[in-house]
Design goal:
Radius of gyration: 18 Å
Shape: globular
Number of strands: 7
CATH class of the largest domain: Alpha Beta
Structural class: alpha/beta
CATH topology of the largest domain: Rossmann fold
Order of helices and strands: HHHHHEHEEHEHEHEE
Largest sheet: 7 strands, mixed
Oligomer: single chain
Helix content: 40-55%
Number of helices: 9
């Protein structure tokens, strides 16, 4: 997602926001105030990340070494490209470390993703579409990925359980994608919103991955139902094409 248009260019500067705060609705005021106080929003600007969500992936990768130089990565729901930025750095897909293996990063989103050196973006593509799967198989070295990332989410409806169910369905579609492109031993990291169907997703992941754990990065807001499943050691099911 666009992270409110790259955090609205840091909300068109803190000064402008403070001047306009009184003209906003109470909900808008709360959101703007939260953004102004958010250290990850500020850090994303200072470190040239497209969105604060980059720090979620950075924290997870620092701890679990998910992304390695030379790896092939598919970033689902990639817009605006913050996770792809992290992946490009960690797998060396831009070739900035000549002594290290050269990786591959492919981002997919229904939205437009601005170009990024070291990444190949499939904008206006549905990650559940067989045509997108075919394109990924064509672009990936040997037609296989080491890692599937997903920070994608549906547009919020305001009905928590409905939104939860929609995101679970999206996450389940990633398991179908894994059957097409993920190499044996590969990993999947996907965002979900906690709810009644969480166990169903965890069970499906556990049926094809040897290790599945729940993560809540520090950059994930404490009051959010957002969680991540980190699944490792993918086991082929025999359904791959």
């Amino acid at each position: 997602m666009w992270c409110f248009s790259l955090q609205r260019r840091y909300l068109h500067s803190s000064l402008c926001l403070m001047k306009n705060l009184k003209s906003k609705t109470p909900a808008e005021q709360r959101w703007l105030q939260r953004q102004l106080k958010d250290p990850y929003v500020k850090a994303s600007q200072q470190q040239n990340y497209r969105c604060r969500s980059a720090f979620k992936l950075l924290e997870i990768d620092d701890k679990f070494r998910l992304l390695q130089p030379g790896y092939s990565v598919v970033d689902c729901g990639a817009a605006p490209g913050a996770w792809s930025q992290v992946a490009v750095q960690r797998v060396n897909s831009a070739g900035t470390a000549p002594e290290s293996p050269h990786g591959t990063v492919i981002g997919v989103d229904l939205l437009n993703i601005p170009p990024l050196d070291g990444a190949h973006f499939l904008s206006s593509h549905d990650v559940t579409d067989p045509a997108t799967h075919a394109k990924l198989l064509e672009l990936l070295p040997d037609g296989r990925a080491h890692v599937i990332l997903s920070d994608m989410a549906p547009n919020a409806s305001g009905f928590r359980e409905m939104d939860h169910e929609k995101l679970i369905v999206m996450c389940l579609s990633l398991i179908d994608l894994a059957e097409k492109i993920l190499q044996p031993g590969g990993s999947l990291l996907c965002k979900y919103w906690d709810g009644t169907l969480t166990h169903k997703l965890q069970e499906r992941l556990s049926s094809v991955f040897s290790s599945v754990r729940t993560l809540k990065p520090n950059a994930s807001r404490k009051d959010s139902a957002e969680r991540y499943f980190f699944a490792r050691m993918y086991r082929k099911t025999g359904k791959q094409s």
